[in-house]
Amino acid sequence: MKLYQIGIKVAAFLCFSPPDMLFLTGMKPVNPVIIPRAEHSVSRSLLSPNAVRVLYRLSDHGFIAYLVGGCVRDLLLGREPKDFDVVTNATPNQIKKLFRNCRLIGRRFRLAHLHFQDEIIEVATFRSKAPGETEDEPQPEASDTPAPDAAEPRRRHPEHLKSADGMILRDNVFGTPEEDALRRDFTVNALFYNIADFSIIDYAGGMEDLSRGIIRIIDDPFERFTEDPVRMIRAVRFAAMLGFNIENLTWRAILELGDTITRAAPARLFEEVLKLFLAGCGERTYQLLRQTGLFAALFPHFNNWLAEETDGFPHTRVGQALDWIDDRIRMGEKVSPQVFLALMSGRYIEEKGEHHRRAGVPPQQSLDLAVAEFLGELAPTVMIPHKTGILVRNILAYQHRFRKTPGKHPLSFIGRPGFGDAVDYLRFDCGITGKNRDALSWWESFIQANPLPPNGGQAGEQAPKPSTGTGRRKRRRRRSHGREKPGEGPEIS
Ligand code: ATP
Ligand code: MG
């Protein structure tokens, strides 16, 4: 690919900027590489029409408007972007004035969400990678707008805040396009697409890394992973997703700092774990997480249990579960967080349950205890919401019911929320162990004769009862007037 090096002075951006923008200068300007439209493959026809509308509205009002991040990276690679992120020199309040469908969100990182019928376009204001105060120093109250006084010393700015150990707590100091590019995580994520002339602007060497298939953190890896340990997981995610290699220094820093992933908030780590394993390349991700030590740091107890096995079976099972999930996702199916968690750690939870059963605890309580223990072990690192924990528990509990064919009230059973998830688990388990084949084929025939409700029995919504005949309709009417609502009923073990 031909790259054109054209110097653009930061002053050129500054003269476009609205007066209430806080620009922090002092960094040595970097001349970006500009790739003109004729030299790259990103065409407007590939963009979301809503994103194009947003870019033009900002630029028609005199603001800089770029696409940035994953969408530019993916378009250049010929992949379909997951979402479109816009970056501009308009402040959040200026964005709000321009778009009626705007909602400002976030405290740690304030930005605008523009709501369209079928998508949300995220619009952020250029940020600076300003060195901030530590949380030990007194902080003025955070505000929605950038500080108006650009002459204010950088270290005292209230909108950029680091913890005593160097983690970014708040990142709301606005800056230049160059500063914004350089405070992003990886070079391939720092490319801008400029709606003004359809060029790509590259401040960090992202084009070259993109063509060589390299994930490289911008700037000093130790500092950047200390600022935000989640970037280590992101490096693994992008490497697995794009089939890229992690650059040497970046890799070494992850090996050294892997344990510090636990400094990130457990709720955020749960979201990140889902992104890691539900992107369609979970198996590759798993291998990279294990090689870097991040898997052991995220799931310490589960990892110990995996290591204890002598015949290697559980390791194989996790890999097989992730393979199975990857296949589903590649076929365009959705895999829920609870199915992922049950497939990955179901055997581990069941083993805990068996332990309680051997100690004389009844089966249902044993499973409840085992799930609670699993959630409790993980809580300091990866916080699984209680609701998701219950859905995992149901998937495992339903497996016992599957073995009884037909058992009591099979029609009521298939209408339960989470039934589809539980069948998925049975299909996977049967596929790899060969057990319960007869039960699976009985339930599959039964489902065929009595189709699942429109949501396929996935948990989350109340699934309506299947409508397969007058007799059942009558019974449903009676129930809705009585004790049992659709989808409810005693748990089955
Ligand atoms: P995806 O395809 O998963 O959406 P993405 O690269 O768009 O990938 P997002 O989480 O949507 O990832 O973030 C958008 C952009 O914001 C990134 O490309 C990157 O430039 C920047 N970014 C996101 N998280 C961080 C972070 N923790 N540190 C620095 N920059 C980040
Ligand atoms: Mg994105």
Main attributes of the structure:
binds adenosine-5'-triphosphate, binds magnesium ion, 21 helices, 8-stranded mixed beta sheet, alpha+beta, cca-adding enzyme, domain 2, 3-stranded mixed beta sheet, 493 residues, disordered C terminus, disordered N terminus
Please, could you describe this protein's structure?
This protein has 493 residues and is α+β, with helices and mostly antiparallel strands. Among the domains are: 27-212, Beta Polymerase, domain 2, CATH 3.30.460.10; 336-449, Orthogonal Bundle (cca-adding enzyme, domain 2), CATH 1.10.3090. Helix content is 46%, strand content 10%. The protein has 21 helices and 13 strands. It has helices spanning 10-14, 49-60, 70-76, 92-98, 177-182, 206-212, 221-227, 230-242, 248-257, 266-277, 282-292, 294-298, 300-308, 313-330, 337-358, 363-378, 386-402, 410-414, 419-433, 437-449, 470-481, and strands spanning 33-35, 65-68, 85-88, 102-105, 111-115, 120-125, 133-134, 160-162, 168-171, 191-194, 199-202, 214-215, 245-246. An 8-stranded mixed β-sheet has the order 1-11-10-2-3-6-5-4. Strands 7-8-9 form a 3-stranded mixed β-sheet, with no helix packed on it. It has a two-stranded parallel ribbon with strand order 12-13. Strand 8 and strand 9 (168-171) form a beta hairpin. Helix 15 (337-358) packs across helix 17 (386-402), helix 15 (337-358) packs across helix 19 and helix 16 runs antiparallel to helix 17 (386-402). The longest helix is centred in the C-terminal third of the chain and has 22 residues, at 337-358. 42% of the residues are buried. Residues 1-27, 132-156 and 460-493 have low confidence and may be disordered. The structure holds adenosine-5'-triphosphate (ATP) and magnesium ion. Adenosine-5'-triphosphate binds at residues 69-70, 82-83, 85, 184-185, 189-190, 228, 230-231.
